[in-house]
Amino acid sequence: MMSEDRHKKAVDELYHIANDIYTQIEKGKIPKMELPLRSKKNIQFAPRKGVWKYGNMKGVRSAKKLNGAYMLLRTMYMLEFIKDMIKENKSSTLREMYYISEGWDLAKFGSQDESNNLAEDLEIVTTCMREDFKLRPEEDGARIIGNLTLQETNRKGVKKKLNCRDDVGDSGYSVPYNVEEEKIKFLDTDAKFIIAIETGGMFDRLVENGFDEDYDAIVLHLKGQPARSTRRLMKRLNEEMGLPILVFTDCDPWSFRIFSSIAFGAIKTAHISEYLATPAAQYIGITTSDILNYDLPTDTLNSQDVKALKSELTDPRFKDRFWRDEIELMLKINKKAEQQALAKYGLGFVTDTYLPEKLAELGIAKK
Amino acid sequence: MGRATAESLAKKQKEISIGEFFQANKQILGFDSLTRSLITAVKEGVDNSLDACEEAGILPDIYVEVAYAAKTDFKIIIEDNGPGIVKRQIPNVFGRLLYGSRFHSIRQSRGQQGIGISAVVMYGQLSTGKPTYIISKTEKEEVAHWMKLVLNTKKNRAEVIEEDFKVWDDKEHGTRVEVFVQGRYIAGKQSILEYLKGTAIVNPHAEITFKDPNGEITEFHRVTEELPHITREIKPHPKGIELGHFINMAKASKHRRMIAFMTDEFSRVSPRVAREILENADVREKQSPRTLSIEDARAVLKAIDKVKIMAPQTDCLSPIGETLIKKGLRNVLAGLKPKFYAPPVTRDPKVYSGHPFQIEVGMVYGGELPKDRPVEILRFANRVPLLYQQGSDVITNAIARVDWRRYGLEQRGGKGIPYGPAVILVHVASTQIPFTSEAKDAIANIKVIEGEIERALRLCARRLKTHLGKSAKKAKNKEKFDIVQQLLPEIAKKSASIVGKPVPKLGKTITNIMNVIWVNDNVEFEKNRHRVSIDIYNYTSTGKKLNLHAEMPTKGLNEKKIVPMPSEINGEKVTWKLKKIPSTEVINVSFEYTGLGEDELGDIELFVSEINPAIVIGAEPLPGDWDLDEKARQSLFDFDEEEELAELEEAEEEEENGDVDYDEATEVIDDE
To answer: Which of A16, B320, B359, B378 has the fewest other C-beta atoms within 10 Å?
Structure first.
């Protein structure tokens, strides 16, 4: 769909929401909105797409409750705001919208999480994307180093060709928030896989050790939980360039969630999992068994960690054997480890020994 | 040493004076420790003053001072505005044990045996060697009498050492006692301050000022001008009278025939009732009471149990009353900011061993009261706080028997003293409080009394629970109020503007959300003027008519500026018979106070009547003791709280219609 059409569709859909509320009040009913429940109880595996999507459980946001009434009022304000932006051909960041709500009197948001969530609610109800609403995230995309040549259309509309190893500085190529084809085209690569890394420290270690060149790898820094654009970019690289995605994180419950949002689809964005998730992504480590096998330095799990692990045990996305064993083992040994724990055996250990061994285990070509 | 003979023993046998007996047994009168002695001394003096004032129909102003004298000696001053004591009686009242006007009468009073104040004088003299100083003035006399006296413990007589006339500034009448006692001053749970606090709660008509040994002054202000009604003496009630007591009365009777004895010397026994009793007991009407056999006496007592006899008159008792218990609690406990004052319970009088008694219970909940400690129990007997021996008191036992878990307090195994942020007040009023000892620390465990206390506790606890339920409902409704007043109109306006249509009418949606009558009061203060505005919103789907009642201070009230005109003003009680309020409309009632300081305006309590109270938020159902006559008081027990509760719960259930709240069901999503 052309972007003009998409904006028109968005305006229509938003009008429907407002009209629905209006009609309910006109009929003397208590206005309400129905939305799919965004919880782990309500996500289902969609076999055709290989990702996890929302199921059929619905929740109601009703003006009968104070919270619901506030959210409905905010919805009205947000609809009006989006409508005006589309009309005036402006756009705003999510953070800007949060601050704009300061002027919305009663409808002002309590936190940016609230406004972000409401924007997602609107995506779900309208089946539009927030870009269609002229809303965009702050720049929090990944950075990449590796032999990948791509073409980016820059802010002046000029198409720029660049190589993510030779044309960038030490901090790599920075992924913009829009990574759709109209913005980025992949031209060429000789890489055999992408290694997506949770922490900046480990990304820099691999770069310094020359891992990308030694192993024909594209090294990618996830920056914790990866932004939508990062996940979308990985999916495109996987599907269009045939590059396996290998996820390399700390060994703790939160890192498992990073992997699940890359490979299975995040609960928060389950309405667009087919755009964002890469079902073929693989987890390279650090696994709980690595802690034992490599005798890594560890920390004891805190109560939040234990709670998160237990919650993962009831998460349908983690129900396969591998994850179940990992989670249960972690609970049993009551330990977690950071990626940097590998430095116990020297700075070269991760690139000389650990990763080659893990790559061999996964059957990815060794040098 | 030779053996004692009857003769040698006889030489040693002589009468022990009451004074000597007391000296040897002072612990039974409450002088067993230094701390305790000081409290007892204050307590006896204050009780005496309150009794004297009430009997004379005077609103008590009592000044209490405790000051360090020397080492462990204290000077206690108790001054009242009572009727005063005529000169010749002063030595008897203060210097003679067992001298009193109340021992022989059957009616409720604080002191009874005439031991109290003279025991203080005696203890003071024995422990410090100092005399007691009395000043007293009656209304008729020009000047006061001043006396310095000691007690002759052998003769049980006072010896006046010095006396004089004294000009007492501005004092029309009253008595001042200055006594020196050995003691120890402490703060805490069993202290003079606690005793006075308790006294102030159950005597809201008294003004009490206390100066402690450090010079700090605590004032308990009068919150009602209403004196406890003067109790009347009555004859014993036949129900529950003990055999020995009955036989003694029969033997001492001036009557020649049982029928006359029964009719004349007992209360609530008419000739018809007496005849029925005697017939039942198979005792002749003409039988002389003086020669009544023990068997016949037993038969009469048995028959008394079977025959229906009217409950004893209530005018020999002086309950505090539901309104005043609440006022008293509010007055003294306001510092702890309790959230709820459960409507107190005053039970009908009952009888034990021929003595009428009456139970009252009040409860306070929440606020800054400690949550993790046992509830505080305030025990009172004839308006006197009981500070000691809590464990062996019938009140404590009755509290421990109630399953408080049903009423929202913690209690292990459903027995024992409950835990939670609550204060429980229990007042036992009786013509004869069955204390466990002369020290009057605790009330004996008498089954009927325990049962009555238990019933009163349950009733009050249920009111508390209703109250809590309502309060939660009110908070919930406050939210709804915000929804319909602020949010819904905005939602309607915005949606209309987006779709480009006129703003829709909200009436039906509003009644759908609220479905209550909402009473909202607001006080504004500006330039010496309190403006009270009460909005009554009808958020139900039909027009509603109701009466609004306010219990409000009259001081500073501008009666001409009450809008609309009340249909009745009766002292602090004001009633409006409001006109019908159409659905979704509001009626306003407003009035003004002038000349009061910002914090001087007392509480305004709102009530409604002639409408189902379950649908009213922000005002209570009109209490039964609104008009304090007997009939109205009885009707208090007519309205069924259980039914009311059930209605409330039903209304709440209707609200839940199975929708899952989106914003509450969605867990914190943190995977992106």
So the answer is: A16
Which of A136, A165, A184 terminates a domain? The answer is A136
Domain count, chain B: 4
Instruction: Assess if residue A367 is contained within a domain.
Output: no
Same domain, A218 and A351: yes
- Among A161-175, A269-283, B108-122, B327-341, the minimum mean pLDDT is found in B108-122
Across the interface, whether the CB atoms of B491 and A21 are under 8 A apart is answered: yes
State the pLDDT at residue B169.
77
Residues of chain B positioned with their CB less than 8 A from the CB of A66: 479-480, 482-483, 487
pLDDT tier, B3 (very low <50, low <70, confident <90, very high otherwise): low
pLDDT score for B103: 46
- Please check whether residues A91 and A158 belong to one and the same domain: no
Interface of B with A in 493-532 (CB under 8 A): 494-499, 501, 504-509, 512-513
Give me the pLDDT at residue B81, please: 94
By CA distance, what is A253's nearest residue in B? Answer: B671
Which residue of chain B has the CA closest to A104? Answer: B490
Query: Which of B610, B626, B642 is the C-terminal boundary of a domain?
Result: B626
Domain span at residue B101 reads 18-220
Say whether A269 and B672 touch across the interface (CB within 8 A). Answer: yes
Question: Does B645 fall in a domain?
Answer: no
| Same domain? B188 vs B276 | no
pLDDT of residue B658: 63
Domain that holds residue A328: 143-362
Does B654 lie at the interface with A, CB-CB under 8 angstroms? no
Has residue B492 got a pLDDT over 80? Answer: yes
In terms of domains, do B283 and B335 share one? no
Residue B294 lies in a domain: yes
Where residue A248 sits, what CATH number does that domain have? 3.40.1360.10
Q: Which of A136, A170, A204 finishes a domain?
A: A136
Nearest by CB: B663 against A25, A67, A267:
A67
User: Does the distance separating the beta carbons of A22 and B492 come in below 8 Å?
Assistant: yes
- The pLDDT tens digits of the residues spanning B348-396 come to 888 887 788 999 999 998 888 888 899 999 999 988 899 888 888 999 9
Residues on chain A touching B654 (C-beta within 8 angstroms): none
Q: Are residues A153 and A274 in the same domain?
A: yes
CB-CB neighbours of B654 under 10 Å: 9
Both B283 and B431 in one domain: the answer is: no
Catalytic residue among A15, A77, A99, A294: A99
Residue B488 lies in a domain: no
Of B496, B505, B671, the CB nearest to A266: B671
The mean pLDDT value for B282-310 works out to 89
Measure in Å the smallest separation between the Cα of B618 and chain A Cα atoms: 19
pTM of the model: 0.60
Q: Looking at this predicted complex, what is its ipTM? A: 0.84
Chain A contacts of B667, Cβ < 8 Å?
39-40
Low-confidence residues of chain A, pLDDT below 50? 367
Inspect the interface and report whether the beta carbons of B670 and A228 lie closer than 8 Å. no
**8-state DSSP, B117:** H
- Asked if residue A301 and residue A281 are part of one domain, the reply reads yes
CATH number at residue B421: 3.30.230.10
A99 is catalytic: yes
Q: How many CB pairs under 8 A join A and B?
A: 146
Check CB contact under 8 Å for A37 and B479. no
A106:B487 CB<8 A: yes
Q: Looking at per-residue confidence, does B117 or B59 come out higher?
A: B59
Q: Is B499's CB within 8 Å of A18's CB?
A: yes
